[in-house]
Amino acid sequence: MFASLTLPLLLTIFAIAGAVVVLVSIRATALADLIADRTRLGEALAGGVLLGGATSLSGVVVSVSAAYGGDASFAVSNAVGGIAAQTLFLAIADLAYRRVNLEHAAAEPTNLFQAVMLLVLLSLPVAAASGPDIAYFGVSPVSVMMFLAYLWGVRLSSAVGENPMWQPVKTADTREDAPDEDHDPQASVTGPALAFAALVALMGGAGWIIAQIAGEFITRYQLSSSLVGALMTAVVTSLPELVTTIVAVRRGALQLAVGGIIGGNTFDTLFLVFSDAAYREGAIYQAMSQTDLYWLATGLLMTAILLGGLILRQREGPARIGIESVLLIGVYGCAVGVEIFG
User: Fold this and answer.
1) pTM of the entire structure?
2) Is 45:32 a contact under the CB 8 Å cutoff?
3) What pLDDT band is residue 242 in, cutting at 50, 70 and 90?
4) What is residue 10's predicted lDDT score, i.e. its pLDDT?
5) Between 302 and 40, whose confidence is greater?
6) Which H, E and C letters describe the chain, residue by residue?
7) What is the CATH code for 7-162+189-341?
8) Where are the domains of the chain?
9) Tens of pLDDT along 255-264?
């Protein structure tokens, strides 16, 4: 479909698809906040499950398309590269929120639990890649474990949000998760939910276009699949998370901002589950490259740093942002350097 197109036209279509994903995500953020208020779901859980899953849809399409086409490295690197990029976005949001360290102001037990859940889900592919090559009907048992662990984790996250056994110490800079002042508790959620679903469909279609053009780049110019996946499609399909995070911070929905990143990353681990099902040459974990494993390790390290920052709740650090944000920027910069020059 795209093989006969010139490079300028490919780049133009790629840019338009990326812009659609970004612009649609802006409206999706407002709708997710509204749905959170009307359903009493809470900003952290709405950000983690509803908004995180929706803005990740274009990335899912990219990874599954690549896996179905037999390019395991492209599928995996797009997934784990996106997790690293999205975690970096929290450091950028921290820079945008000048009042105090974002992780301090957005203290929320649900976000802490989801960060732990993300560490668990990221560790399973590492175990699958280094363990025996076992697959049933082309699907690794680890994929089933990851899917079930995700569902169980979402249920536990809801329980943590509704009946937390831990509470953050409230300070003058702590931002409470409260409905907007103009919130109508009797308003219907049907309209916003339908509009949200339509926006999700648009993001999925744009993701398919991005996947096809990226695959054309790999084939036509003999580019590394991990390079295109981790630094091209992963970043482009992760831009909604950057936009929604900044928009949420500007709206004062800090739990939604942090929860959207952590929950989006947690959902992104399912890219590997869906990709494993689409990859017909065996377990996709055994087909990963060393570079893909490196990006997995980077995601684990960055998540651990973020979790440490959420627990530490430093008010101010270097350049008026938390020390975790400085470390996240440094770790991601090193990972990009290794990918390009290593």
Assistant:
1) 0.85
2) no
3) confident
4) 92
5) 302
6) CCCCCCHHHHHHHHHHHHHHHHHHHHHHHHHHHHHHHHHCCCHHHHHHHHHHHHHCHHHHHHHHHHHHCCCHHHHHHHHHHHHHHHHHHHHHHHHHCCCCCHHHHCCCHHHHHHHHHHHHHHHHHHHHHHCCCCCECCECHHHHHHHHHHHHHHHHHHHHHHCCCCCCCCCCCCCCCCCCCCCCCCCCCHHHHHHHHHHHHHHHHHHHHHHHHHHHHHHHHCCCHHHHHHHHHHHHHHHHHHHHHHHHHHHCCHHHHHHHHHHHHHHHCHHHHHHHHHCCCCCHHHHCCHHHHHHHHHHHHHHHHHHHHHHHCCCCCHHHCCHHHHHHHHHHHHHHHHHHHC
7) 1.20.1420.30
8) 7-162+189-341
9) 777 877 888 8
* Nearest-angstrom CA–CA distance, 17 and 293: 29
Q: Which pLDDT does position 83 carry in this prediction? A: 94
Structure token digits, residue 252: 């004062």
